[in-house]
Design brief:
With about 450 residues, this protein is α/β, with parallel strands linked by helices. The chain contains 12 helices and 19 strands. It is globular and about 65 Å long.
């Protein structure tokens, strides 16, 4: 049996398993999960150290607090036992969609959330049964219709006009989904957290210089590897004067979160936990009760990191006068919602899979190896060319390309093990491909 025949047989076995269960992953979504887990973990840690409550929502009843106190007591008694059973709570028995938003700086000292706009909007879909999580980035310039006679606006205006409730209602009506809970952070939380961690390493892909004196935003970043402090991290995340607008900023949020994960993996970050706890209690707002936060934190520890995926709502930029919008593509947006929220599965045609490879000039040798190894697995390479790129990614362009497929492919193809996984059905990279491997220079 020759090598190609053996590879095809292994591939067929993989496809049989794929039909039974097909979930996705991405480095960005892993980072996002870690951040949510850390926020929940720090909140619980704070509660264990004191009787102070965090900023929480309306459902934080005395009954749930009593349950939590009982849980802490039981946990303390059992923590030294060798045969400790895994603690479980039958709360998230169904999939949950949690809205994670980041707001700009508020001008009201008594209420830092009042009148703020949402610069970051992410929908997390969590499935406790399969231990998986999906994340959808919603461009803040997305043109939508706001309920309650607010009319046509950008989605980020919803919070300024009607708070988190209007933001939730707008997303639910626009996308046809149900949002169960929300978590909010603001610029101050990002700035103080990054400073507490001693900065975050980021490769800045271009010169970034911008000054908004009325908005008190000053950005001065040079191309190349930078260790961003809190102020510069906020500037990097908010920069959009590069021709890509909101979509460029969404990509930078993903790259920043990857850098933040690397920083959080450093053992030195543990010493910063007390300071981070204080930040969480002051700059995080959520309607999750203590009961739900503890369950989410418990669940996060058991999430299968190979069952996570991320996407951005697809569309195109549009200018109306001086106002720029992101016009959502109805058909492609529905594809993203069906896949990420409703977990619809699309069969993979193993007889006709097409891939593409785009590479930086200094990676031409590695790109040739990737191309050759793809073809050995029976995959047709439709496009192969050099481009000026700064971040490596695996772009799944077809709904049938899952992270199970990607994980299988990583065992067969060199140089793609540590690159970022993204689902993008728009197919702007290689139009005829089911997926595109983007190999950036170091």
């Amino acid at each position: 049996m020759n090598k190609i025949t053996k590879e095809r047989e292994e591939y067929s076995v993989f496809l049989k398993h794929l039909q039974e269960e097909k979930e996705e992953t991405s480095n960005f979504a892993k980072t996002l999960l870690v951040i949510v887990s850390i926020l929940c973990g720090m909140v619980i840690g704070f509660l264990l150290l004191s009787d102070t409550a965090i900023v929480s929502g309306e459902n934080n009843t005395s009954e749930k607090k009593s349950w939590f106190a009982e849980f802490v007591s039981n946990f303390s008694l059992k923590k030294n036992k060798k045969d400790k059973k895994q603690f479980t709570i039958p709360l998230f028995t169904k999939r949950q969609t949690i809205l994670l938003v980041g707001t700009d700086a508020g001008e009201n000292p008594s209420d830092p959330w009042a009148g703020t706009r949402t610069d970051t909007i992410i929908l997390l879909n969590i499935d406790a049964k399969t231990k998986s999580i999906n994340a959808i980035s919603v461009p803040r310039d997305s043109k939508v219709f706001l309920p309650h006679d607010y009319g046509i606006q950008k989605i980020n205006a919803a919070h300024a006009l009607g708070g988190i409730q209007l933001t939730k209602e707008t997303l639910e009506e626009t996308l046809g989904i149900k949002i169960n809970h929300y978590i909010m952070v603001n610029d101050a939380a990002v700035e103080k957290s990054v400073d507490a961690l001693g900065g975050v390493p980021i490769y800045v892909e271009k010169e970034m210089h911008y000054h908004d004196y009325s908005g008190k935003l000053h950005i001065n970043l040079n191309k190349g590897l930078n260790i961003l402090d809190g102020r510069n991290a906020v500037g990097y995340l908010r920069f959009r004067k590069d021709g890509l607008g909101d979509i460029g900023r969404t990509q930078r949020q993903q790259w920043f979160l990857r850098g933040l994960l690397e920083k959080l993996q450093n053992p030195q970050a543990i010493a910063r936990i007390p300071e981070l706890i204080n930040i969480v209690t002051s700059y995080i707002k959520t309607d999750l009760s203590l009961y739900e936060i503890s369950q989410l934190a418990s669940l996060a520890k058991n999430i299968d990191m190979n069952k996570i995926e991320v996407a951005t709502l697809p569309g195109a930029p549009n200018q109306k006068g001086t106002i720029s919008y992101w016009i959502l593509d109805p058909e492609k947006t529905q594809e993203v919602i069906d896949r990420m929220i409703y977990r619809d599965k699309t069969p993979l045609d193993n007889n006709h899979i097409i891939g593409g490879v785009i590479y930086a000039g200094k990676k031409s040798e590695q790109a040739e190896i990737i191309k050759s190894e793809l073809e050995q697995t029976g995959i047709t390479v439709s496009c192969f060319y050099k481009a000026d790129i700064t971040h490596s990614q695996f772009i799944a362009q077809s709904s049938s390309i899952s992270n199970d497929f990607f994980n299988w492919l990583k065992k067969k193809v060199s140089y793609i093990k540590n690159i970022q996984f993204v689902y993008d059905p728009v197919k702007n990279f290689c139009p005829k491909s089911d997926f595109t491997i983007i190999l950036a220079g170091d």
